[in-house]
Amino acid sequence: ASLATRPRQDNSTFYEIRTYQIKPSKMKDFVEMVNKHLHLRTAHSELVGFWSAELGAMNKVFHIWKYDNFAHRTAVRQALANDKDWQGKLISEVLPFVEMQHNEVAYLAPWCQLGKPPKEGGVYEWVTFQMKPGGPAVWGEAFQAAINAHISTGYTKLIGVFHTEFGLLNTVHVIWWNESPDHRAAGRHSAHEDARVVAAVRDSVRFLESQQNVLLIPLQCSPLK
Questions:
Q1: How far is 125 from 144, CA to CA, in rounded Å?
Q2: Could you read off the pLDDT tens digit of each residue along the chain, which spans 225 residues?
Q3: Does domain 14-105 have CATH number 3.30.70.100?
Q4: Does an H or E element contain 184, and which?
Q5: Is the dihedral angle over the CA atoms 140, 146, 147, 148 positive or is it negative?
Q6: How far apart are CA 4 and CA 109, in angstroms?
Q7: C-alpha to C-alpha distance for 153 and 130, rounded to whole angstroms
Q8: Which of 91, 98, 99, 113 is nearest to 15 (CA)?
Q9: Confidence (pTM)
Q10: How far apart are CA 66 and CA 19, in angstroms?
Q11: I want to staple 207 with a disulfide (CB 3.0 to 4.6 A). Which of 78, 139, 162, 186 is the partner?
Q12: What 3-state DSSP class applies to 125?
């Protein structure tokens, strides 16, 4: 299967990807407050993961929320607006720490299941690809081949491939897990010498506008650790 131009899954499930820029002097306080009180938020809907940037970005956090459909998200947002504990113990406390908020709605690629790391204690790599206009009907097959080529090397674990529906279109977020930054570096060096990877990347890069890689550390409260 390849990426499609219709919704990226057979069901209505989607993922809201949120990125916050935190004031540098408040990053430690923000993380502490989130770890302490995020259970008030996860009581309303499912959190996939919550990470802070270590390399490739500064003072940023990334989190992903899963929804059954848009009506589900609307109901959750209404419940949160009326949740005095959530509003008082976390939102009102951390909002002054936040300089910027950005959200996107994305679907999982239909050929990708949301994965989990084989063990705790590793690091995550968040790779954002801005693809050329035209959608997955144009670049989906080549992109999938490049992802599969990296998977075949065995040095990294795929967590998820998300394609935006709201936000900047033709954006694909790919999340990988590695045991450590050094393990990732060694694997990348080997992959660059793998003929399968080289050929697949050469084909897919024809459709690429830009790419950004960020190394992430999961927060204590994150389901994906």
A1: 18
A2: 444 444 455 679 999 999 999 999 999 999 999 999 999 999 999 999 999 999 999 999 999 999 999 999 999 999 999 999 999 999 999 999 999 999 999 999 989 999 999 999 999 999 999 999 988 888 999 999 999 999 999 889 999 999 999 999 999 999 999 999 999 999 999 988 999 999 999 999 999 999 999 999 999 999 999
A3: yes
A4: helix 181-191
A5: positive
A6: 8
A7: 24
A8: 113
A9: 0.92
A10: 15
A11: 139
A12: strand
Each domain of the chain, given as residue ranges in start order, spans 14-105, 108-218
Structure tokens at 168: 């900047």
Residue 208's identity, in one-letter code, is: L
The CA distances from residue 127 to 31, 171, 179, in Å, are 22, 10, 17
Fold type of domain 108-218? Alpha-Beta Plaits (3.30.70)
